[in-house]
Write the C-alpha cells for this entry.
Amino acid sequence: MRTKVITLIGGGLAGCLLAMFLARRRFPVRVFERLPDMRKHRIPAGRSINLSLSTRGIHALKEVGLYRNIEKHLVAMPGRMIHDRDGKLLYQPYGRDESAVHYSVERAALNKILLDGAEAAGAELFFGEKCEGLDFENRHLLLRREDDDNQRILPFDTLIGTDGAGSAVRQAMIVQKGIDCRDEHLPHGYKELAIPPGPEGAFRLEKNALHIWPRGGFMLIALPNRDGSFTATLFLPHSGLESFRTLSDEGAILHFLETEFPDVLPLMSDPVHDFLNHPTGTLGTIRCFPWHVGDQALILGDAAHAVVPFHGQGMNCAFEDCVVLDRLLDEHDNFESLYRNFEAQRKPNAEAIADMALENYIEMRDSVRDPKFHLRKHIEWLLEERHPARFIPRYAMVMFHRIPYAVAKERGDVQAGIIERLSESINRVDDVDLDLADRLVTESLQPLAAMPSRS
Ligand code: FAD
C-alpha cells in the first residue's frame, strides 16, 4: 500500500486532517483544492464563519498533535442563553459540571492551522485546482485551474473525496457507478448577520454561551468569536408567511427583526444590509451508499454524509471519520478492504447523527421554550448522578463523549421513554419517584463501561 500515492480532492477541514494522518504514516499524499491558498489570499468564509468544536473533533486534533495550536482560537460555551421576545434571558448549562462544554472556533483559523499541519507532515498541496470529474476505469482525474480554459487529465492510484457537501467525486460515483444517493433538502435556509465587538473588544452578549432566539418556526443563534464579535445565523423557511422569499425589502426586514429579535438588533452593525447582501445558504442531508469504488476511490466527511448543522456535529463527525480510517490502516493491507470496512463502520453512525441533527432543530427552535423541557433536563441530570455508568443524557453522549452516534441514538430513545414516564405527572424534579426511576434505569440500560468517553 505504501508505494501508492493517495490523492485527496478538497483541502477543507476533513481533507487537511486526513492528509496529516496519512502523511504521518509515510504515504505519499497530494491534495487538490479548488480555492486559492487561504493562508495567502483573503477568501470569503462562505458558509458558517464559526463552528462548534466538541469532544470528537478535539480528540482527532489531539491525535495529530494540533490541539495546542488551536486552543488559543477557542471560546468556551458551557451552556445556552435563551432570549425570549421581551429580552428576558434564561441560561441553561449543558450539564451538571464544567466538563459539559463545547467551543466556538473560527472556520478560517482552523482550516489554516490544518493546512500548515498537512504541509508540515509532508502532504503536497495544490491550490486553485478544481476536480471536474473522474474516470474510474482508467483511474484518471479531470482537473481545471481557474485561470485556464483547458481541462487536464491526471492519473491516480487511489483517491479520497473530501470535497464537501457538493462533492464532484460523489457525483462521479453516482453517474458512473450508480451509487444510491438521496439529497434531502431542508425547507429552511440560513443567513449570517454580524454582531461587532464593543469598545476595546468587549463582548456585548454573554461571552461564554451559545445564544439562541427560539421562535417556533424559525430561530436566530449567535456564537462568540475571540475578538469580541459574534456571528449570528438566522434559520428561516425559504418560502411561506415569514420566509426569505417574503422578506425581500428593507421595510419588511427591519419590521421582522424588530419584532422578533428586539434585544439583539441594536447590537448588529447593519442587519438590513447584511440580510440583503449576504447569501442565503441551503441546508440538507446527504444519504448515500456505498461510499467506495473498489480500491479506486472513497468519499469521507460531508462528501459522504452532509448533515444539517443543528447538533454542531458535521465537522466533528468528519474528523472522527479521519480517526477511524487511520485506525483501520493498522488492520488492512489493501485499499479495497480498508474502504469497505470504513464505510461499514461509519455508515450507521452517519445515519444516526443525521437523524439526531434533524431532531435537534426542533429542540433548539421550539422545545427549549417549554417549561417541561427544563424539567426533563433536570431529571436527566438526576439520573446521570444516580447512575453514571448507565445514564448519560443523549445530548452529552453526542457532544461530550465519543460513544458511537448509533449507540447514542439507540440509548437516547430508551432514555427518552424513561424521562417521559417519570415527568408525565410532575412539575418539579424533587417530585420524581426515585424507586421507579432506579428500577427503569437498571432494567432497561446496560452499563456503558467499555465505551470511549471524553477526550
Ligand atoms: P468542507 O469543509 O466543505 O471542505 C470541502 C473542501 O473541498 C473545500 O475546501 C472546497 O473548496 C473543496 N472542494 C469542493 N469541491 C471541490 C472540487 N470539485 N475540487 C477541488 N476541491 C473542491 N459542523 C460542526 O461540527 N459544528 C458546527 O457548529 C457546524 N456549524 C455549521 C453551520 C452551518 C451553517 C453549516 C452549513 C455547516 C456547519 N457545520 C458544523 C458542518 C461543517 O461545516 C461541515 O461538516 C464540515 O465543513 C465538513 O468538512 P469537509 O472537509 O467534509 O467539507
